[in-house]
Amino acid sequence: MTRDKKRRGLLVLLYALLTVCWMVQHPGMAAATNSDFEVSSTTERDERLKSFETVTERLYNVMQQGDTSAAHQEMDQLIRTLEGLSFRGVTSVDGIHALAECIMDTRETINRVKLSPEAWVETSARLRLAVNSLTHKRDALWQQYYKVMSSSLQDMGKARSAGNRTGFKEALQSLQANYEMIRPAALIQRDAADVNKFESWLSYMERLGGDASWDEAALKGAIDQGGPLLQELFGRKGHEPVFLPIIGIRSPWYWSALIGGWIMLALTYTAMRKYQAEQDVSPVQRPK
């Protein structure tokens, strides 16, 4: 009980620290009109964020190796880099809360008397993804999980069609595990509503899949909803072009001509069908 209270106290303290850092501005910034000052402030913040990421990378490496002494040192350094670091404009309050939880989970894992290699690997990887998402808006590491999560979703559909409960459960557990890994990073970059929708869908899938007798229609419908929700979570477009340049052909004129040819062919075919229809249909006589 005491341990839980201590953890909650540390979490509240760190959350308050990060929230203040996010909200606080330099003295006079609200009224400042000097663009040089604002650029300097932003540059300094970006440099500190990079330093924060560098320390996180070192912590990740030593935790993957199970180096207890080095992990304690790097975690202390990570906490020090947070002092006075502003997250204003970088993420939302939900993102800050997710980052705070991530840091505290990692710190608690390091401080456990009994070392758990699996927990060290998971918590350090989750923290690494979260911090990386602060400094990489377009090519963040957590985005690489889209393919494997999409594959798990497809496996769920195949297992449902085959009536394979074991396969369905394993695919769902894989999807859930990967979601838990990217959740803090997703909250840092994405709208909390998108994350909450996917999380609610996961809970619904777990309930449907755990029923003694499957509701096939409901289960199929829920799996079909998973694809769009996953795309929304990762910020992917729902309908991306299926005709992409083939590797090795670099001229855009080739593809412009080819696509233009397809369009002209479609228009010609439509015109021919319309002409044939007009020849076959007799005019309707108006009633006298």
Describe the structure.
Keywords: Membrane, Transmembrane, Transmembrane helix. It comes from Paenibacillus woosongensis. This is Sporulation protein YpjB. The protein has 288 residues and is mainly alpha-helical. The protein folds into two domains: 134 residues, Up-down Bundle (A middle domain of Talin 1); 92 residues, Four Helix Bundle (Hemerythrin (Met), subunit A) (Up-down Bundle), CATH 1.20.120. 75% of the residues lie in helices and 0% in strands. The longest helix has 31 residues. The protein is globular and about 55 Å long. The termini are far apart.
Topology readout:
Elements: H1 2-23, H2 35-65, H3 68-82, H4 93-111, H5 117-135, H6 145-162, H7 165-189, H8 192-210, H9 216-234, H10 252-280
Helix pairs in contact: 1-4, 2-3, 2-5, 4-5, 4-7, 5-7, 6-7, 6-9, 7-8, 8-9
